[in-house]
Write a structure and sequence with these properties.
29% of the residues lie in helices and 23% in strands. It is α+β, with helices and mostly antiparallel strands. Strands 6, 7, 8, 9, 10, 11 and 12 form a seven-stranded mixed beta sheet that branches. A hairpin with a 5-residue loop joins strand 13 and strand 14. Helix 5 packs across helix 6 and helix 7 runs antiparallel to helix 8. It is globular and about 60 Å long.
């Protein structure tokens, strides 16, 4: 078995990446689809080598923390046989292919993208030359589902649309550090999707050596686009594939609506008549090994033996007979997990906190305190996305949140609300260095004001964006609350 030294950025399975709490290993789960047999093997791995927990990441991977040693060669071979580790270790660390967790079962979908997930995973796992890609090279496939992954940052995104009574993909590329996407104004035949992504990767590999930022790190795709332009890049892709891509009347920067982000939580009918899926809120994306095994067993008993991981760090159980949904809900509750759409555990996100030397605060512990407080004191009627970040890198969530807490000192946070911009990426700042003891009560007040004053179907972030003036850094939470009242 090949052993590799750790890459500069992203962990995988074939090497240990050091963290504050021990080594970190990450398993790629293409499209987020996990079989019950795979889940059992991962639970055993977490119990035997890690801290007894697994964590769903914001790319629908699974990671195991606090590992004290390399994974034994025989275990790696077993994981390869189960499809949990790539056949070529050198490229196993590349980012997960992201798709909607409701691909193939979403009644609103234009296309079932699972065929393309399989094709792209096969491409990534069978081409050793792709080791030259930056570890964060990422691909997203949006089939037009109600549960959209359009707002998740990806270097390459294919979005299914209906065009002249036919289904096609629109192609967009990431052009900024903040994840802004540029629609290139082309239409792709669905069967051409994997070839186009391959050509994009090949153009990168052919030209990336001409770009250097002086750090020795591989440039991101967006840096090549900045240097030569998106149109030039598209021309190089066309040379690779040997034909001119069909242009469409649209194009330009894409701004995605985040209102669908947490529609996966709770009970939802599938496009297959008589079947439903249940979205389970996972506190901070962390599952004890026995909880993962329990969910896998429930998927076998009530569904089709698969789980679906989401980029919002939750889990779905699909293909459940409508007549058995209530029984499954009760069984999930016995695992100390909730299927309530507005349970605070489903939408509160935190970085690794004390597990990372860059973090100023113990975000994981503080997030758990906040979940407990809101569960006991606040009756939410829709998910509230609160993002706790221990440093400005915002590793846990790159997209906008309803409320963002940025750790700046032990037990102190800057507080932000609403949609940000280049100057204030976390949102509008309403408080500086707020003590942890004051934050749960502050959020409780904000929720109450929102629920009393919002427009019909207005999200928290939309309410804040509509209501909040441009605030100065001297603003305080009290002044902000007075303003809203």
């Amino acid at each position: 078995m090949v052993r590799l030294s750790a890459p500069i950025v992203c962990p995988g399975l074939f090497y240990a990446v050091p963290a504050q709490d021990g080594s970190l290993f990450r398993l790629r789960i293409p499209g987020g689809v996990l079989t019950s047999h795979q889940a059992g093997a991962i639970a055993n791995l977490a119990t035997e080598l890690g801290d007894g927990e697994v964590q769903v990441t914001n790319r629908a991977n699974l990671q195991i923390r606090a590992v004290g040693a390399q994974i034994p060669a025989e275990v790696l071979k077993q994981l390869q046989r189960l499809g949990l580790a790539g056949p070529i270790p050198e490229v196993d660390h590349l980012r997960n292919i992201m798709a909607s967790p409701t691909a193939g079962i979403d009644s609103q979908a234009v296309m079932d993208t699972r065929f393309l997930v399989s094709e792209l995973d096969q491409y990534l796992s069978s081409h050793p030359a792709l080791v030259g890609l930056p570890p964060k090279f990422s691909v997203g496939l949006d089939g037009g589902e109600a549960v959209s992954i359009g707002e998740r940052p990806n270097d390459v995104c294919l979005t299914a649309v209906n065009h002249n009574s036919e289904v096609a993909f629109r192609l967009s590329l990431n052009i900024s550090k903040g994840g802004q996407r540029l629609d290139l104004g082309v239409l792709l035949h669905p069967q051409a999707g994997s070839a186009i992504v391959a050509a994009i990767a090949e153009v990168y590999l052919h030209h990336e050596h001409q770009i250097s930022d002086g750090t020795g790190k591989k440039p991101r795709l967006r840096q090549l686009l900045e240097h030569w332009s998106a149109e030039w890049y598209l021309e190089q892709v066309e040379k690779r594939i040997g034909y001119t891509l069909q242009r469409s009347p649209w194009g330009g920067c894409v701004r995605d609506d985040q209102g669908s982000a947490y529609l996966h939580l709770g009970i939802h009918p599938q496009r297959q008549k008589g079947l439903s899926y249940l979205g389970v809120g996972v506190p901070l994306g962390r599952l004890a090994a026995d909880q993962l095994e329990g969910l896998a067993a429930l998927a076998e008993r009530y569904g089709n033996g698969t789980l679906r991981l989401t980029p919002w760090q939750n889990v779905l159980i699909p293909n459940v007979l409508d007549s058995r949904v209530e029984c499954l809900q009760s069984a999930i509750a016995l695992l100390n997990l909730s299927t309530l759409p507005a349970h605070p555990a489903g939408a509160i996100v935190a970085c690794s906190g004390s597990g990372c030397k860059a973090s100023a605060t113990d975000t994981q512990a503080h997030a758990r305190l906040l979940i407990d407080y809101l569960e006991q004191r606040v009756k939410l009627d829709r998910p509230l996305n609160v993002h706790l970040s221990g440093c400005p890198k915002s590793c846990a969530q790159h997209s906008p949140s309803d409320i963002a807490l940025l750790g700046v000192d032990v037990d102190r946070y800057h507080v932000y609300v609403g949609t940000g911009d280049a100057a204030q990426p976390f949102g509008q700042q309403i408080g500086r260095s707020v003590p942890l003891t004051e934050i749960p009560g502050l959020i409780e007040q904000l929720v109450q004001i929102y629920q009393q004053n919002r427009l019909a179907e207005e999200t928290f972030r939309a309410f804040v964006d509509r209501s909040v003036p441009q605030l100065h850094h001297s603003s305080t939470p009290l002044n902000f609350i007075r303003y809203l009242n």
